[in-house]
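Example 3.
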Amino acid sequence: MPRVLRLVFCGLALWTVASSAQDRLSVDGDLDLRWVHASSETSYLNGGLGDLRFDSDHEGLRLGRAFLAPTLRITDIVTLHAVVDDYGDHDRNPVDMSEFYLDVRPFPTNAVRWRMRVGAFFMPVSLENRGIGWTDVYSITPSALNTWLGEEFRTIGAEVEARWLGASSGYLGDVALIAGAYGWNDQAGALLAERGFALTDRPSTLFGGLGVPPIDFYHEIDRKPGFYAGLSWRHHDRLELRALRYDNRGDPDATNTADLYAWQTRFTSLGARLEPQAHWTFIAQYLDGDTASNQDSTGYDPFYMTFHAAFALASFEWAHERFTARYDDFHTHQLSGYYDGPPSNDDGHSWTFAWSHECGDHWQFVAEWIRLNSSFPPRLELGEPAAEVESQLQVAVRYRIHMGW
Amino acid sequence: MSRTAKTACCTLLLLVGSICARAADLSVMVLNRDGSGVGEVVVTTMPAAAGTATPAAPKRAIMDQRNLAFTPRVLVVAEGTSVEFPNSDSVSHQVYSFSPAKRFQLPLYKGETHPPVIFDRAGLVVLGCNIHDAMVGYIYVTDAPYFGTTDAAGGLQFKGLPAGDYQITIWSPFITDAAASLKRTVHVDAGEGAALRVQLGLPLRARPEPQPRRRDWEY
C-alpha cells in the first residue's frame, strides 16, 4: 500500500487509542495459544505447497493469533473499527492490521436503513467468520473457500448497504442490497494460481505478507477500481441467504514498477445459513469464478484459470459445548499459460471436525482435526508427489477480553 | 350519632356494597390451534358504553435491553405512559422507532442518563436497535382502560371490572389471524364475571428465541 495510506491509517489508529470518553471506546481481544500435531508436507506458509497452516516441521506449541479489536464511537452514527493482529509467523510485520474502517450508520427514518463503510474491511461473503476479528465461530479453521477470501481479498475502498427492515411491516427479517468499490486488490488470484486452495486460519493483513518469500496482496497496479454487488436476506433470524458478484476489473497486461502484474479475478458466491432452532446450525457456500494474468507469459498464452469451491457444515451447540463437522470440495483448472511446468490444477476435498467448550466469559477451548486430500501437479517440481493426504490436529486455548471506557 | 350522620354512613355502605357487588373478574385465555396457550399476547378491554370506566392513569413502564434483546419483547402501556429504557448489557444500544405512533431515537451508552420516552398516542410502536439489527421489540400504546399481556400459559386476568359489556382486542406480532377476527364483545356479569377463550385459526409466525452472541460482528 502507498506510504501515505499507511501514515493515515497509523495516525487514525493512534487517535483511536488516545481518544477516550464515556462509553466511547471499547476493545475486544483474543489470545489464542495452540498445541499442534501435523502430518503434512511443508505448508505454503513455510515455503512448500502443503495446504494446511502447520506442518511436521512446525508443530508443538504455537501462537494461533493475538488480536485487539478497538471500536471508537465518534458520533452516534459514526464509529471507527480496527483489528490489530499478531500471528507469530514469517509476516514481515510482527504487529499488523487486518481491518480499519469507518462505519456510518444513520438512524432509520423509514423502513430502509442506509449504511456506509469506508476503509479496509472484509466483504460480506463468509457465513462462518461471524466473530469479532473475522474469527470462525464454528471451528478454528474456516473452509477452503473462506480461507482464500481471507487471504487475497480486502475491500480497500467504500461499501454502501441499503437494508429494508421488515419488522415495521410485520415481517421478522430484512433484505439488504450491497455495493462496494475498491482499489489495491489487483494481486487477488496470484496465490490461488500458485498454490491452489488451502485450509488455514491465517488471513492476510494489510501491510504484511503470507508465505516464504512473503506474497503481499494489496497493490494498485492498473489504476482501475474494482466492484462487487451483493444481496443478503435474513428470514425470521433463522435463515440467512447471501449472494455476491465480485469483479476486480484488473487489466492482465498492466504492470507496476516492481514488475508485478495485475490479475483479473471474478467470482460469484452463494451461501445459506440455517438455524432451525437454538441448537443446530447448517451452512452451505459455493463460489465459482476465474482469474487471468499475463505475468511470466513471455512467449506463451496468458495465464487463465477457472475455479470453484463449496462446503457444507453442520454444527450442534448445547450449553457450553459446540460440535461441528464440515466437508469441503475445491478445484482449480488452468486453461492456458502452461509455462514449462505442470498446470495449476488443484483437486481436493477435506473433512473438518471441531469441538469447542466455553468456560465463563473469558476462556474457550477448541480442538479441531482436519484431513485433506488434494492433487496439485506443481508439487512435482518440489520432488513431492502431486497427490497428498494431509492431516492436522490442533488444540487451542483462548483468553478473550472485552473492555470499555 | 346524629340522624344525618347515620343516613350518610348507611348511604356510603350501600354505595360501597353496590360497587363491590358490581365488580367482577374477566379471565382471558388465548390458545393456539393445537390448544396450547400463547404468551406475549396483548389484550385490551374497552367498555362498550362510552364513559363507563375511568381510563388507566398514565404511569411509568420499563423496556430493558438485556442479552441483546428487548425485555419484555412485547409491552403494552396506556396513552401518556413514560417508558424508561435502561441498558443492562455491557455493550451500547441505539434504540429507535419510525412508527407513526412514536418516532424517536435514543442512544443508550453506559454511564449516561437517558430521559424516558413518553408514548402519548395510541398505536403500535416497533422498536429496533441501530447497532444490533436482530433486536426487535414492540410497545403497544392503548387508550383502553384495562390491558395486559398473556402469561406463558396464554392466560390473563382482569380483576374488579365494573359489570357491563366490553370490546376485547387481541394482538401479537406472532399471530397471523386477521385482526378483525380477533375482536370480541364480552358481557361481564356482576356476580360471576366472565371467561373468554380465543382459539387461533392460523399458525403462529416463527417466534425466534433471542440468541445472544455478544462477540458476533457483522461480517
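The CA atoms of residues 98 and 315 of chain A lie 27 Å apart. Residues 3-18 of chain A form the longest helix (16 residues).
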